[in-house]
Amino acid sequence: MDIKLPTGLYRKRAIVEESSSLRDSEMFSSVSGFGQNLYMGTSTGQLLHYHRFDDSPGFLLISQQHLRNSPITQILVVTKSNRAVALCGGVLYLFSLPELSPLQSGKLRDVEHISLFHQSDIIMVAKDKLRIIRFLGSEVKLVKAVSDISASKAVGHYSNNLITYATLHEYSIVNPEDGNRTPLFEYDTEGKVVPNMVAFQPPDTEKEEILLTIRSDTNTSIGMFISATGDPTRGTLSWINKRYPNGGIAVQWPYVFGIFDDKFIVSSLEDLSIIAEHEIEGTLINIPNPVSVDNEAYSLKGVSAISIDSDLVVFDAKAVYVVYKETAVNLFLEDLISLIKGQSSSISLLENETDPLYNELLFLYLVFNKEFAKLEAFADATYQDLIICLYTGDEGKHAFYRGVERVIDVLRPHLDDHFRAFAFKSIQQTYLKSHQLDLQLIAYSSFDTSTEFIDFVKKDTKSWNSPTDQLNSIIRDLESKNLHTAVLYSYILLKEDEKICSLSVKFLTGEYTDSHHFQLTNLILDSLDKLEDPKIYRDALLEVLRVDSKRGISYIKKHVNGKHKKTHNEIISQVNNLATDEDYAQLKLEVIENSYRDKSASAEELLEHLLGMLKSPNEVAVNNFGILYQTYLIENTFGTHKPISSWVGFLQSIMDTTECRNFIEIYLKTFEILNFTGTSHLSELEFVGDNSIYDFFRCCFTDDDKVSGLLDFRDYFSAEFYCIYGKPPYPPHKYYVCEDLKPIDGYKHLLQKVFHTYKTNENNQAIRHFINTYGGIYTPGEIIDMLPSNLSLAYVQDYFINVLTRLEGQHRSLVIKKLFSKLDAKSSNLLFTDLATNNNLT
């Protein structure tokens, strides 16, 4: 099928036809691609893997596996993490790329639809919610979940975090961060068609748009365009009397392709008109990873065919097709072939010419028609210079054309020894010397593989000390040949740090798949600190974190306050797929702590991260906490004085000697922030549950009677402190808080509850401590009433001595006051008498 459109010729080509792997009643039900790999799902649950080898123009079935007895409705490739997922019978199966090895991380069930989100996440539509999941190694992590959404299909926006989804009748937009939803419009009041949603970025506005299809009536449908925030954009596509695109739609600027029952319809995105229709059946999908196909029409035996990349795939019950735009080169070759075939009589006239250019044209003509006998005779008769040197521009820049050499390589098995003597490289040296051309540029232009280039450069390293225009020309030539390994090696020699990082990232992400022996992570880490561009720096560091999180985290810790401090903070706050990594969590904590101290982060943000770190204690922490608590009980008994310390004070004093220092520090920091923020965060302590490690948290923050809880925990210091100040004591050396606590009203009554516990437990040492410490706030009569009848007075003699001393002191003070009063009166009387005498004298 050829479709002539204003921008060129589009063709449909079969890449899998009447597959023998399908049983009679079995059909293709889904498709996806990844480079030279094609993944097909069938109606009976078979997952088929086709591959196109370099020496084969078509796709060959190399493996198949049965998932379950249900159709495989979707296959999604996540190139960022080298993973694939297949949806079969509501169950999501996970695989590694490219070989589709099953991952042993379980299956996700009750799934209705999946789609890619920001290249690395997957939107998963379940029965009553949307979930966003992410691959973390071989495991899957839940990133976000939005409940109470009965969707059938969803598509993520790549310019923001919003998601457009379809229910049974209408389209809506949801923000997964806060769950806010915005209804758009109905697409089918009867619920008879499948919604179509395609996000794309048109070059005319460079702003993301989403195309949504709507069924107007039985025979008519329309396409609405909205922005990434839900506002209408370019207008409406109308498909009058075309029914509905049940076969799917795809966007490839400037066209919308759709399959309407048995018609393939192309519409313009520029004027919103229908510009082409063809008879076709099947399902159309726009896959995010173009499938690589060879065009056999213009290939000689043994010569690599022209490659076609297409992301428009059509499949029906038994076959798979790609729809692609024919290249200008191929169209030119078609015309050229027709021209040559029609000029055989004129070409024969060249046989009598002696000019080298005519000889080369004749040589190429004989090669094209595979006239080997004439070729051998032609070689005997004339010496062919097999090099064509192309000059461009006034500066005399030149490049080396090696097409003739490739042709000879194909023909060599058919030629005699004399013709084989036309070895390209030997001729090249003679040619270069005789023409006194720039040996370096032309020599480097002659390489077709990175290995050839690198081997040659190792003998010419002096030329690669610093960038020059000539070396840049060589690198551009390598890039045009897709010799990415050679390009990276060039930048390493030239110490181009930004380009080293950018290329290394493309290798790590799989964008470049060339063979190499570089330690890419080392290359990036060695270059990072020399980078100035924050985007290149961020992309490179993120990729290191993805492939080797420990080394990436170690690098950030070492340079956290360096010139890219802002980028570090952004990465640490945004990258959540490493949240289970202890080193990463610790690093993120340091950043939040600094922000909290700078007042750019709230106590709530700090608490949220601390709680996340505290929720999953390791086995070492659990075992050690039990031992530490028993030690605390032994050391915190009442001796001749008072309780040694609070539980948090005890932990802080011994944490440097334990095997779980980091966990204790997080424990204490969490306690401090919770103590500071008060009871507004009780809901965040649901994880405490029955885990004995968090008994102290329950006593301080969730129990109704906190004083009794602390007494049961046997932290008498904290119980007494709570009675006086209304909250438990902070660790002796605070991490964040500067708070001066003041006694609360009515603490005298609360302290009696503590004393009652000491009295009930017949703990005489505790009673003595209490009377000696807090006796001053009670009268002697109240103390006597509080004391147990069988208590030896030896335990309270210090208190009563202090009382008597205080009373004696008060008596002495009274006597002295009276004496001073008398002296004061006498002095006043003498003063008045003296004044009266003086007045009489005057």
Automatic annotation (TrEMBL):
GO terms for biological process: autophagy; endosomal vesicle fusion; protein transport. The keyword Isomerase does not apply. Its main location: cytoplasm. GO terms for cellular component: cytoplasm; membrane. Residues 24-300 form the CNH domain. Keywords: Cytoplasm, Protein transport, Transport. It comes from Candida tenuis (strain ATCC 10573 / BCRC 21748 / CBS 615 / JCM 9827 / NBRC 10315 / NRRL Y-1498 / VKM Y-70) (Yeast). It comes from the Eukaryota. It is found in: Cytoplasm. This is CNH domain-containing protein.
